[in-house]
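Reply to dn_fold:

You asked what the input looked like. This is it:
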Amino acid sequence: MTELLHLSATEIAIIAAITFSAGVVRGFSGFALSALVMASAVVILPPVELIPMLWWLELSASVLMLKGGWRDADRKTAIGLWIGSALGWPLGLYLTTTLPVETSKLIALAVIVTLAVTQLAKIRLAFLATRAGLYGSGLLAGVVSGLAHVGGMVVALYVLSSDAPARAMRGSLVLFLFLGSATSMVTLLAFGVMDLSGVTRGLVFAVPTLAGVFVGQQLFTERLAPYYRPFCLTLLIGLAGLSLVRTLT
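and this is what came back:
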């Protein structure tokens, strides 16, 4: 297994634990899987190697959650965000493949912290309620996805601006991430980022991820729904902040 994944046994165990935990959060909140894995596993693998693996993890989680997401989502909003994201993905991925690894790490982690703090502060921007805001948010999500695979955080910021109920926000994010899987795969192949190593790691670590998603889905109840957003964002800030410190030292 270590030769297949090009990771040590310790690294495999750590990433499996990370993906399971991130899966729990994804099943509960509808987003943050990639952001959590990126914030934690970036100390083991650079973003350009994590991104193809994360595509498989997100796809697996989206398929498992699609039924509920389709039922609860604001489909018009999810589709608009998806269109904008498809246009932004190539630019973000270009930046990832051309920047030095350490710089890429810092940018990815800084993006996570910034977006998480903004959402936790409940900052609302009026222009987000416009059509330009919808597609602009999708475009930014695509750029951030290509750069650090945390576009779900940008979309969550957009949904937050409309005061959507937790169930609707969760459904829209699930639908957006599912729709984005097809277009992001095309971009990953075009840039040569989706290699055999990324596929192998994605399929192997999809197992603990799906186990986590299943657990997280059981936790999403009406009683706990009001608390899911601050919990996820606080966790993201802590993980990304710790990884930033490690990267800089």
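The chain has a mean pLDDT of 85.
Hope that clears it up.
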